[in-house]
Each structure stands twice: as structure tokens, then as C-alpha cells.
Design brief:
Chain A is of the alpha/beta class. Chain A is built from seven helices and 15 strands. Chain A has two domains: 224 residues, Rossmann fold, CATH 3.40.50.620; 40 residues, no CATH class. In chain A, helix 2 runs antiparallel to helix 5 and helix 3 crosses helix 4. In chain A, 52% of the residues are buried. The longest helix of chain B is centred in the first third of the chain and has 17 residues. With 417 residues, chain B is α/β, with parallel strands linked by helices. Chain B is globular. The chains are: A alpha/beta (278), B alpha/beta (417). The interface between A and B is large, with 103 and 111 residues. Strand 15 of chain A pairs parallel with strand 22 of chain B, so a sheet runs across the interface.
Chain lengths: 278, 417
């Protein structure tokens, strides 16, 4: 069994902000990291390796420095790592990204067919959750999103059964391989690397594939293959900024002043009194 | 302006403005721009030919470049096949998600918004309804603002699968050719939208919180939170149709239902995909606690990091009941295991728009604030007078919530009776 895991290098988004004075991105000291959802996907792949002896290939698209997330994957136990790096890949939206990754998975399949593609539900920088379904669609893989448990894989009948999160509960569903699973964080906690493997990973060779290596059309990758473009960025707008009162200056005055302000809108006050019933 | 050794006036990237979108890298005809180790674009002055393409294409004005004759932004001509001018591409379509044989609330929020957009484009609102025995939903869709409903009613669509719904919906798009296509960003909608956009090879912008028509071009401008909600990006889709967008529930208001409205219902045949379909095994409903849909309550009492204490929960529950709502929370409270994930408000939780929001000990990280901007009235209680939540609140009380909340409960009780 061959499992490919897609891993994205992302900035630590909790740190990304816009300077309100200059309206520019504050980037000093922001660390890059492997997308946490993707590391959950990697952990699941490694469990399949432990259980079924699957071969695990880690895949990432990004600039040359994104190889650090692949080294991390190797240190945790991935067998192979491929970095998709080419100037032509720059500026890709989710459509171009899913094309590039699917061409790479096809290329991986030439040596050993890929049975399972695992990826995180979404990346924490873009939050789109679109790349996984895009890859599944392009490669004709059975698509399972929001996976919280891989219940079983039968290599003989070539079926996978998963539990996935849906509105109002969970769904157990089974389908044929090859399949793509996009996973939720609760699926698994990523393991720590052992020291010898960590040391090995620094020296491990990482394959670098460009557009030609994956036989990708230059019209479909990067900015050229991306129908959506960014027009502008801004800080999220915050509204209102109503008055506030300090309870230390008098608790009951503060509470009644706040309530008077809140209920100064008569319609709102009336709706509240009626228990919001129309 | 800096010149290189060949005397060419070169472009320069202002590094603290660069957002590393890499558009300039892709646009540069000579490959003179690269991401440097700090993660921002950098121009190699010796390779730069001074064409200014990076300057023209940068979305955030991060390129310093002087050119005597500035060229306009290189928009491609829109009048090519599939262009907005064609009458066939003039509709604003909405995927009508159904729950238990009725339209999901988000569907009507979108038909309302689609109506606004359609009026600016002089276009029709199209409802796309898929399912089994869903003609009732088609009537409902007209009452909620659709001019035309395109219906695929087939027993093979009784349960959602991305393969069947994706095929049916992309087939409909190819037939009806909408200019704009909106899908609710529910669990199902996000799963579906990516599959449909890929089939149609068009652009899709996820989780939009704002949709506008650009006057000059008639293009759809889509605003969405990115970088975990810390930044709002405006995205557009120039060449491909439809312009697709998934929209979070509760961002837009649903219009009034009008049973008198007239519209046309067209039925379409379902041609199933040829692949082997997954087999549904079972549905496990979430536990009572988790099944509470905080989005559907008119009032929310939201516990934050400052009220992350198990012994306080009964007090907050009491407040929530009194205001006709339910208890919700921010991320730290879920992480501490006090409340289930389903109760979480925020960028990674739920976007909410209650009539009344009471934040107790919520400091107001941007991710949280983005998700509550649709609330009608916000009351904030926090011990830190500088907490960002006060900037979005209609009224605020600074102090210890364990003293303030009982006082508030007493006053609200008077108010209610």
C-alpha cells in the first residue's frame, strides 16, 4: 500500500497582523511551521505504515525553504519526501494547487500506484478546505472529508471505511480505493521524532520536482493557472465601540448604565421582553 | 530611483508591505524576483528589465517603481467566450441546500444576497435544487427570491455524496451558465464547492463574509478572512465563469418569505457519474450537548478565557436562560474541556449572529470578533479595560464577572417581568 500525504508550510497565523497605522503586514519574527491538520494526516499515514506496512511519501509544494516540513515528516517516519518547487508554481490558488499536487501524485504512481492520499481538512493560513476535494476530483479518487477515524482498510477488497463529521453528528461510510481523506485534528496526535531519525532527517535527500518533472502544463500551474486573484488586504473591520463603565466605581450604576444603553433601542427592548418571539 | 549597472530603473519591493502572494514572481518575464529567506519577495536588480509588471500586478502596492507612462492594470478583455456580456451568462445562481426536505436557512440568506447582486447586474436569481422529492423546496425557493429554479429530483440524490451532487451541479452550471454561483459554507457546502469548481475549472473563494459588484467591471468582489481571521482579503475571478463563492451561514440576512412571488421551475434529468459510489453505513447523531446548535439561538452568553472556570458555568447558564439563549464559549474554554467544540464561537468554531451577545471574560481575538460581527447588540464584561472586545461592544462593563453577572441577572429579571 502506498500512502501520499500532502503537507503545507504555513506561517504561524496567530502572529500575522496588520499594522493599523501603516496598513502593512507585520511579519517580524513570524515562524513557519507545518500545517497542524497536515501533521495529523501524516500521523494517520504512519499508523497505516505500522499496521499494514504501507509506504508513506510526504509531498509539499512551496519555495525551496519549505523542505523543512518534509524533513520533519522524514524524522517522524515518512519513507520518502518530494518538494514541488518551481518558479512557475508561484502565486497558485487552490485550483492550480490541486492541479500541481495531482500531477505529482500521478508521477509518484508511476513507480508505485498511490492507494490513499491523506491531507489536512484545511491549512491554517488560507482556511479554504478546497485543495483536498480538488485533488480527489482531478484524480477520480473517492472523496472523504472531515474524517475523524479510519475504521478499517481492507487491502484485498480494496475498500476503506471511515467515520466523518457531518452536520448534527457523524457518518460511517465506506468506499473503494484509491481514496482521498481530508482529516480533522481529533483524528490523531502527531508523534514525536526519535533522536536518531531526527539526526538522519537533516542529511536525508529530498527530491525536488519542477513542472517538467511532473509533466504539468505551464498554463495550469501557479498564477497562470489560477482564476482567483487577490485585489487587496485589510484589517478586519471592527464596529461600534460603545461606552463602558467600571464596576469598581459602583457595581449597580455600571450595570444599569450598560443596560440602559443596550436597551435604548425600543424595538430591541420590546423583543427582549417578549422572549424574542415575533 | 535606483538604477542597475545597465542604467535601467529597477523595481524594488517594500519588504514590510509584501504579503508574499508571489504574484510578482509569476508575472516577472525575466525571473528576477524570488522569495528571500525572510519570506518576502526580492528583486535582483541586475536581472530586472524595468518593465513594471510587478508594480502593476502587486495587490498591496508593495513595489516601488517609477515609470513615466504607467500602464493600466493588465486586465484581459472580458468579451471573450463565457464573458459576462453574453445573455446566457447573466444569472446569479444559488445552491439550495436542503435539510429534512426543506431549504436550509443559509440557502435563503444567499438568495437574498443573490437578489441584491442580480439587481446590480440586471440579472435573474437562479436556484439550483438537488435531492429526492424536493419539489416543495423549489416553491419555497421562489418565495425566498428565486426567479428561476432548476431542479434535479432523483432518488439517487436522496443522500449527499460529493460524486453525485458534484456531477449534477456542474452539469447544471454547464447547461444554465450562471455568471455567479453561491454555495453556503456548511460542512456539506464546503465539501461540494471544491468538487464543483474543479470540475468546471473555475475560481472558488471560500468562506466569504462580503460580496460586492465592482461598478466599472461588473466583477464580483469577494471578501474573506484569511490568516486565521487576522486579515481580510478581497478576491476576484477575472476570466473563468461562474465566479464561485462559498459563504458562511449567518453572514447575510434572509429576506421575508413571499408566497405570492412567481417564478419558473425547470426540471433536469440526472445523469449519474460512472464511478463506483461509496456505500453509506450509518449515521450516529451527536450527543445532546453537542447537538445544541448555538447558531439557532436568538441570544448567546459566551464564556471566554477570563471565565474559564467550571464552577462559574451554572451562573452563566442561568444568565443564558434568562436572556432566552444558550451558553457558548471561545476557544480556550473548549481547550480546557469545559464545553464541547460545537459550542465554540470563532473563526475555527461557528460564525454567529444572535440578537443579543453577552461576552463574559472574552478578550476578543480578531478570529472571535470576525465571527460575531453579525450580532445585533453586544454586551462585553471583562476585567481588562483594554480588551479588544470593548471596541466592538455596544456597551461594556469593566470588572470581576463573578460580581457583575449576579447583579446583571437581578436587573434583567426585573426588566423581563
Amino acid at each position: 500500500m502506498h500512502v501520499a500525504v500532502c503537507i503545507k508550510q504555513v506561517p504561524d497565523t496567530a502572529e500575522v497582523k496588520i499594522d493599523p497605522e501603516t496598513n502593512t503586514l507585520v511579519r517580524a519574527g513570524i515562524e513557519s511551521m507545518a500545517n497542524p491538520y497536515d501533521m495529523t494526516a501524516l500521523e494517520e499515514a504512519l499508523r497505516l505504515k505500522d499496521k499494514y506496512g504501507a509506504k508513506v511519501t510526504a509531498l509539499s509544494m512551496g519555495p525551496p525553504q519549505a523542505d523543512s516540513v518534509l524533513r520533519q515528516a522524514l524524522s517522524m517516519g515518512a519513507d520518502d519526501a518530494v518538494l514541488l518547487s518551481d518558479r512557475a508554481f508561484a502565486g497558485a490558488d487552490t485550483l492550480a494547487t490541486s492541479y500541481t499536487l495531482s500531477k505529482a501524485i500521478e508521477t509518484l504512481g508511476l513507480a508505485q500506484p498511490v492507494d490513499l492520499v491523506l491531507c489536512g481538512k484545511q491549512a491554517i493560513d488560507g482556511d479554504t478546505a478546497q485543495t483536498g476535494p480538488g485533488i480527489a476530483e482531478r484524480l477520480g479518487l473517492t472523496q472523504f472529508t472531515y474524517v475523524i477515524d479510519v475504521e478499517s482498510i481492507d487491502p484485498d477488497t480494496r475498500r476503506v471505511r471511515v467515520r466523518r463529521k457531518v452536520d448534527g453528528g457523524f457518518e460511517v461510510i465506506s468506499g473503494r480505493l484509491p481514496a482521498l481523506l481530508s482529516v480533522e485534528l481529533e483524528l490523531a496526535t502527531p508523534r514525536r521524532a526519535s533522536l536518531p531519525m531526527l539526526i538522519d532527517s537533516f542529511r536525508a535527500p529530498i527530491k525536488i520536482w519542477d513542472a517538467k518533472a511532473i509533466n504539468a502544463s505551464l498554463d495550469l500551474v501557479g498564477l497562470k493557472g489560477s482564476p482567483t486573484w487577490v485585489k487587496a488586504i485589510a484589517s478586519p473591520q471592527v464596529h461600534r465601540a460603545g461606552p463602558k463603565w467600571d464596576a469598581a466605581q459602583g457595581l449597580s450604576q455600571a450595570v444599569s448604565a450598560a443596560m440602559d444603553t443596550l436597551f435604548s433601542d425600543e424595538n430591541f427592548a420590546a423583543a427582549f421582553q417578549k422572549g424574542w418571539k415575533p | 530611483m535606483a538604477k542597475n549597472t545597465r542604467g535601467i530603473e529597477v523595481a524594488e519591493i517594500i519588504s514590510d508591505k509584501c504579503i508574499a502572494c508571489q504574484i510578482c514572481i509569476a508575472e516577472c518575464p525575466v525571473g528576477a524576483i524570488e522569495l528571500n529567506s525572510a519570506g518576502v519577495a526580492e528583486v535582483d536588480p541586475e536581472l530586472c528589465v524595468g518593465c513594471g509588471k510587478c508594480f502593476d500586478s502587486c495587490p498591496v502596492n508593495a513595489v516601488r517603481f517609477e515609470k513615466k507612462k504607467r500602464r493600466p492594470f493588465p486586465l484581459e478583455k472580458a468579451a471573450e467566450p463565457g464573458a459576462p456580456q453574453q445573455k446566457t451568462d447573466r444569472g446569479v445562481a444559488v445552491f439550495i441546500e436542503t435539510v429534512d426536505g426543506r431549504g436550509a436557512p443559509v440557502s435563503w440568506e444567499l438568495t437574498g444576497k443573490a437578489g441584491e447582486l442580480a439587481r446590480q447586474l440586471d440579472a435573474k436569481v437562479l436556484g439550483f435544487v438537488l435531492g429526492s422529492n424536493v419539489s416543495g423546496v423549489a416553491e419555497e425557493a421562489i418565495a425566498y427570491g428565486c426567479d428561476e429554479v432548476h431542479l434535479v429530483d432523483d432518488p439517487r440524490l436522496s443522500r449527499y455524496l460529493p460524486a453525485t451532487f458534484g456531477k449534477a451541479l456542474s452539469d447544471l452550471c454547464e447547461k444554465v451558465r450562471p455568471e455567479i454561483f453561491l454555495i453556503g459554507a456548511t460542512a456539506l457546502g464546503r465539501d461540494l464547492a471544491g468538487a464543483v469548481a474543479t470540475r468546471l475549472q473555475t475560481g472558488l473563494t471560500a468562506d466569504c463574509t462580503g460580496l460586492f459588484i465592482e461598478k466599472e467591471t461588473g466583477l464580483l468582489l469577494m471578501t474573506r478572512p484569511t490568516f486565521g481571521g487576522n486579515i481580510m482579503a478581497t478576491i476576484f475571478c477575472q476570466r473563468k465563469r461562474p465566479q464561485m463563492s462559498s459563504v458562511r451561514p449567518r453572514v447575510f440576512a434572509a429576506p421575508q418569505k413571499d408566497g405570492e412571488r412567481k417564478g419558473i421551475v425547470s426540471r433536469h434529468k440526472f445523469s449519474p457519474p460512472t464511478v463506483e459510489l461509496p456505500e453509506f453505513v450509518q449515521f450516529i447523531p451527536a450527543g445532546d450537548d453537542a447537538a445544541t446548535d448555538i447558531v439557532s439561538f436568538p441570544a448567546l452568553v459566551v464564556a471566554g478565557r477570563g471565565a474559564c472556570d467550571r464552577s462559574s458555568l451554572p451562573l452563566l447558564e442561568e444568565l443564558a436562560q434568562l436572556v432566552g439563549g444558550v451558553l457558548a464559549c471561545s476557544r480556550p474554554v473548549v481547550q480546557a474541556g469545559l464545553l464541547p467544540y460545537e459550542r465554540q464561537v470563532g473563526q475555527t468554531g461557528r460564525t454567529v449572529a444572535p440578537r443579543l451577545y453577552i461576552g463574559v471574560g472574552v478578550s476578543g481575538a480578531v478570529q472571535h470578533l470576525v465571527a460575531i460581527q453579525g450580532a445585533e447588540k453586544i454586551l462585553a464584561i471583562n476585567s481588562d479595560p483594554n480588551a479588544p472586545i470593548f471596541r466592538v461592544a455596544d456597551a461594556g462593563i469593566v470588572g470581576n464577572y463573578q460580581e457583575i453577572v449576579p447583579e446583571l441577572i437581578a436587573r434583567l429579571r426585573d426588566k423581563r417581568s
